[in-house]
Design a protein that fits this description.
Elements: H1 15-33, E1 37-38, E2 44-46, H2 47-53, H3 59-64, E3 66-69, E4 75-78, H4 83-92, H5 95-98, E5 102-111, E6 123-132, H6 137-153, E7 159-165, H7 172-185, H8 192-200, H9 211-218, H10 231-247, E8 252-253, E9 267-273, E10 281-287, H11 291-294, E11 302-308, H12 309-318, E12 329-333, H13 336-352, E13 356-358, H14 365-375, E14 379-383, H15 385-389, E15 393-397, E16 403-406, H16 408-421
Parallel strand pairs: 1-5, 7-8, 12-13, 12-14
Antiparallel strand pairs: 2-4, 3-4, 5-6, 6-11, 7-9, 9-10, 10-11, 14-15, 15-16
Helix pairs in contact: 1-6, 1-12, 6-10
Histidyl-adenosine monophosphate (HAM) binds near residues 82, 119, 126, 285 and 310.
Length: about 425
């Protein structure tokens, strides 16, 4: 039987690769401009990092982790997200002593055993930013600004930014208690999963997408977390809102936004695109001041954000995005000598940075012209007997149909000019 890629994974091939590379370039450039440095953590970690970091009661830990015992008997998990690993690295390398404030970014595959559908994969990719050691709400604003800047630069439209505060260890428990009471009184209306969550972690109930549960949340009497925030949390939130207003970033406050990971304190946010259907979140993040402590370290405030790259690539694809540097020449040899001449020419093209494709499969001009057309290449450089007699090459423009004989020097000059205007 033919072996296929496992369910929920896929190959990224052909023209789609250009979209990924463009996205990665935009992320890296903006990270650099905002002063974020790259970190590369392992793809697998000790399972405990996620059970303690992300939270025992979350869907990620309960249902979605790729966990196995390695040959040494250790419980290992393929990382489902990048925040807990970043904080683990921060603690492990003693940053809190020698350099407590860091700004980091990462790009890479994450793994969650979810039911695959459009925009939801088992191996998916995220880019993310984590600012550790920063307490000030200005840093929350910086993270949102960075996310927003990247989405804008990618030309994504129809974005909505939802924000909420889920309080701190001082005020959150009052809300959770009130929420539990309210849900207890409406228990019959909740789905089976939510009845269980109600006991273990009532905040998780708010993540439920089932219509019956959503109807309960919409009732006017449903407790609003915004009414329970302590003075410090309220001050933090108000400052963030003010900064975002100054930055001209539109947002809505969604008091039911709690996000699916337990490490958040105060700020949580999500960016959605309504055209994406059910999997409409293209990024999310928030503050996690208690995470370092939960992982056995000291108190280290942190705020961050991560975005799903598959979903963004889907949007780029739909917008008909093409790379600016798509300029490329096709090199068509008509005999063995022509092959040699084109190999030598390819060195000169390489030197001036003009991408080329050399095809050795045939010596037939019609074959080459068809191939070039199929590849979407406009200029074909031909090398055969005729060209050799004139110590040069033919350049064919597949758009105008024009074909001219040029010396190597003239050819390079012409191609450089064409590239600039393309
Ligand atoms: P998250 O909301 O779980 O947050 O994931 C962030 C983004 O990853 C989502 O908004 C979505 O775009 C994408 N994503 C998640 N699961 C999948 C999937 N199965 N297939 C495709 N895309 C997916 C976090 O992971 C946090 N670590 C974010 C964060 C960073 N918070 C603070 N710092």
């Amino acid at each position: 039987m033919e072996i296929k890629a496992p369910r929920g994974t896929r190959d990224i091939l052909g023209e789609e690769v250009a979209l990924w590379q463009h996205l990665e370039e935009v992320v890296r450039r903006n990270a650099h401009l905002f002063g974020y440095e790259e970190i590369r953590t392992p793809v697998f970690e000790h399972t405990e990092l996620f059970t303690r970091g992300v939270g025992e009661e979350t869907d990620i830990v309960q249902k979605e982790m790729y966990t196995f015992t390695d040959k040494g008997g250790r419980s290992i998990t393929l990382r489902p997200e990048g925040t807990a690993p970043a904080v683990r690295a921060y603690l492990e390398h003693g940053f809190f002593v020698r350099n407590p404030r860091v700004r980091w970014y990462y790009l890479g595959p994450m793994f969650r055993y979810e039911r695959p559908q459009a925009g939801r994969m088992r191996q998916f990719h995220q880019f993310g930013f984590e600012a550790l050691g920063f307490q000030d709400p200005a840093c929350d604003a910086e993270i949102v600004l960075l996310a927003w800047t990247i989405y804008r630069e990618l030309g994504l439209s129809g974005l909505s930014l939802e924000l909420n505060s889920i309080g701190c260890p001082l005020c959150k428990p009052h809300y959770v208690q009130r929420l539990r009471e309210h849900l207890e009184n409406h228990k019959d209306l909740l789905c089976e999963d939510c009845k269980r969550r109600l006991v273990e972690n009532p905040l998780r109930v708010l993540d439920c997408k089932k219509e019956a549960c959503q109807a309960v949340f919409r009732e006017a009497s449903f407790p609003n977390i915004q009414d329970f925030l302590c003075a410090e949390c309220r001050r933090h939130e108000e400052r963030l809102f003010l900064l975002l207003q100054h930055l001209g970033i539109p947002f809505v406050v969604n008091p039911r936004l709690v996000r699916g990971l337990d490490y958040y304190t105060r700020t949580v946010f999500e960016v959605k695109v309504h055209t994406l259907g059910a999997q409409d979140a293209i990024g999310g993040g928030g503050r996690y001041d208690g995470l370092a402590r939960a992982l056995g370290g000291p108190e280290v405030p942190g705020v961050g954000f991560a975005a799903g790259m598959e979903r963004i690539v889907l949007l780029l694809e739909r917008s008909g995005f093409t790379r600016k540097d798509a300029f490329r020449v096709y090199l068509a040899p008509l005999d063995e000598e022509g092959e040699k001449d084109l190999l030598i020419l390819s060195q000169a093209l390489h030197e001036v940075g003009i991408p080329f494709s050399l095809d050795f499969a045939s010596k037939n001009l019609r074959y080459h012209l068809k191939r070039a057309q199929k590849m979407g290449v406009r200029f074909v450089v031909i090398a055969g007997e005729e060209e050799r007699k004139n110590s040069g090459f033919s350049l064919k423009d597949l758009v105008s149909g024009e074909q001219i004989l040029l010396s190597q020097e003239e050819l390079l000059g012409r191609l450089r000019k064409e590239r600039e205007t393309c």
